[in-house]
Design goal:
19% helix; alpha+beta; 13 strands; four-stranded antiparallel β-sheet; single chain; 2 helices
């Protein structure tokens, strides 16, 4: 069960692109890295200050891992000339993952949560997009990919969106 009664046995705060997990479950760290790598590409909407984003992984004794993404440090000053240039700060949100998820499964769950949070609240960020469509995270042949819902085509492996423009 997920909720406030869980006692955590360990917790890690990692940069958006972690180079090491400092003891955190490796597939989850790698999944965070893949999703974080793609956040800089194919976005439409409010400015997202990627330099301030941090992942928080909280391990419960049952193997459930709480995932959070939040903005840390002082807000960067950005001259605002339109609503689309406002700096977006992401608040902490949490989802329950299990540390036994495969890398592909964990990557898709994390990508889906981040995408939902960005697109679900004002100021909106649509990410990632192909033309005017949101790409969907899914597992295809054991790999986490961004899929175009109109063409059913795998656009890029999650984490390699930069290579596809």
């Amino acid at each position: 069960m997920w909720g406030p009664n869980l006692e955590y046995v360990d917790e890690w705060t990692l940069p958006l692109l972690p180079d090491a997990g400092m003891g955190a479950p490796t597939p989850l760290v790698d999944a965070c890295f893949a999703v974080g790598s793609d956040l800089g590409f194919r976005r439409y909407g409010a400015h997202l200050d990627l330099d301030r984003l941090r992942w928080t992984l909280s391990l419960h004794e049952t193997g459930v891992v709480g995932l959070g993404v939040n903005s840390s440090g002082p807000r960067r000053r950005v001259k605002v000339t339109s609503v689309d240039e406002r700096t977006l700060g992401i608040s902490l949100y949490t989802v329950a993952l299990h540390m036994d998820l495969s890398l592909a499964e964990a990557t898709v769950v994390i990508a889906d949560i981040v995408q939902t949070e960005l697109a679900g609240y004002s100021p909106w960020v649509e990410w990632p997009v192909e033309e005017k469509r949101l790409l969907w995270p899914t597992v295809v042949d054991g790999e986490a990919v961004w899929r175009d819902p109109r063409t059913d085509r795998a656009v890029a492996q999650i984490g390699l969106l930069a290579a596809r423009g």
